[in-house]
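Hi team,

Filling in the usual template for the complex we talked about on Friday. All components are listed, including any nucleic acid strands or ligand strings, so the model treats them as one assembly.

SUBMITTER: L.P.
PURPOSE: interface mapping
COMPONENTS: two
RESIDUES: 677
SEQUENCES:
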Amino acid sequence: MKVHEYQAKDIFVEHGLPVPKGKVATSVEEAESIAKEIGGAVMVKAQVHVGGRGKAGGVKYAKDAAQAKEYAAAILGMNIKGLTVQKVLITEAVDIDEEYYVGLLMDRASKRPMFIVSAAGGVDIEEVAATAPEKIHTLVVDPRYGAQAYQVRDLAFRVSSDPAVIKGMTKALLTLYRVYKDSDASLVEINPFVKSKDGAVWAVDAKLNIDDSALYRQKRIAAMRDLAEEDRSEVEAKEAGLSFVKLEGNVGCLVNGAGLAMATMDLVKFFGGQPANFLDIGGSSNPEKVVTAMKIILRDENVKAILFNIFGGITRCDDVAAGLLRAVEIMDVPVPIVVRLTGTNEKKAREMLQGSKLHPAETMDEAVQLALQLAGEGK
Amino acid sequence: MSIFVNKDTKLVVQGITGRDGSFHTQQMMDYGTAVVAGVTPGKGGQLFEDKVPIFNTVREAVAETGANTSVIYVPAAFATDAIMEAVDAGCKTVVCISEGVPVNDMAVTYAYVKEKGARLIGPNCPGILSPGQSKVGILPAQITAEGKVGVVSRSGTLTYEVVDQLTRNGLGQSTCIGIGGDPIVGTDFLDCLTAFESDPDTEAVVLIGEIGGDDEEKAAEYIQKKMSKPVVAFIAGRTAPPGKRMGHAGAIVSGGKGTAESKVAAFEAAGVKVADKPSDLVPLLAESYPPAKAALAR
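RESULT (copied from the run log):
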């Protein structure tokens, strides 16, 4: 789960990281009054869950409250990569002298948390990694003992020789580790971490991603979820215990198991079509779940056919078939449905589907080709 | 012989009285797995299905029954505790089925398991099955058959799909193992390939990978440098959009890393044939493994 910059900064402040004064606004008037309260120059920053806000014109330097009002009017309601800006963060403008990148994430290769620090701050770290990897320094932490001061100090010395930066960054990195651990993060990032002209260090930006599996014990952070930033169908699917990702094609896919669901999408593409979605229905043949899944898929008007691909391992195919038949009785489905059931009791299941409006298929290849044909596509 | 579980596996089930735990324990017993004990704190002294003694702790279960392997069906919030309990009690192999384990907890647990020298399989996995010997987890036994092909995968039902195709084509398996779909799992492709390479009863390997991480890339490097047995692969997620988690917590392309293209390229560079679709795996295997060719000809 992602949280907004202003929410991440609140968490940073609670842990003692130096964050410039600021507040979030949802209206132009509010933005102006916050800017007045802060006084002097401020930054007006769009709060959306996408990267590249600055390039899209969603981050502006305002010399005073009047200009902050002007920029807030332009940014609120702005569309950035498909998301409408609902909130802006008004924050004290720091007179920047030097910019650094600091981040902490779960490194899959070492299976441990890893700090990433670079003297090239304020730019996309992946770009730095690609173009100037020598500017990136990393530190893998043993999660049993946590980050030690000498370790992060060593890291700070690699990117700076300025005593103020080294001292400030060492402290900030130790604090960042606490933020990471206390909030069950998968990534926490400050880009840029800056030294201001008066020699202080600041977390000018903040990014915090939380491990979805830990949200059950992070109630406060879970409540920060901004549903306006997420796809409505994906939210609804999650609530129903389904895993769903919308795509651009016209063949709706309904599959049990994430790996098989991906393989089914890939097969649609292989045979010349485009999948409309990823959907893992899990191990259940419950008709209500099937109905919810179909409703979500059919909300997308591009969908011209639905493809069920179910491997009955522990779940029996005849149970799944019964569930499907009930589901299509409950709801009226305007597009053809291809059903491929394989595994335990598959023959019985196919017999049950004979004479229904569902189109049975035996293999994955057959099912996908049939679905494409019915959707009016494919080779 | 098979890898990781076999005829000598003596199993303790953690969470034996739960809904999933009791259902799958029965399935494992029906298959012939030596389920010697169960653990549910507070239910010590009872019997599961009038046969299997239940203990309050894994320590007691191991002391009383000599269990050497554990399988975990407890809710995700308690899974890392259960893993550490099993390892601490002396289980050499621990299979964790639970899905949704917090990844930072897993990082600590992984370090602990490694230090103790135990083998953890999972979490968020279907388990492991050595046909004719032992089934530990939730893999459906009826689609498997005894044979010489090793199967290793990050998925559940996609594994079943492939195992089913092998069996239908007359190719049995030495061991089928699902390593799990989380960002941190106890046993990776490399561990499984190393074990399959030294297992005298495995002659060829089918590997099923997916987007996310670099486990497949490491496997490709190992195959090229060290492996003598034929390996064929399939990678799921070629159509997955970047930045989106595809069901499995670990199946995500982030920062341009972990793409299907990168994995396919790594395998091809290592001389491993990669199937465009699951149904191509057996024909592809036939190109480098004569028994598969013979099986297809039948």
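MY TAKE: DSSP finds 13 helices and 19 strands in chain A. The CA atoms of residues 79 and 85 of chain A lie 6 Å apart.

Thanks, L.
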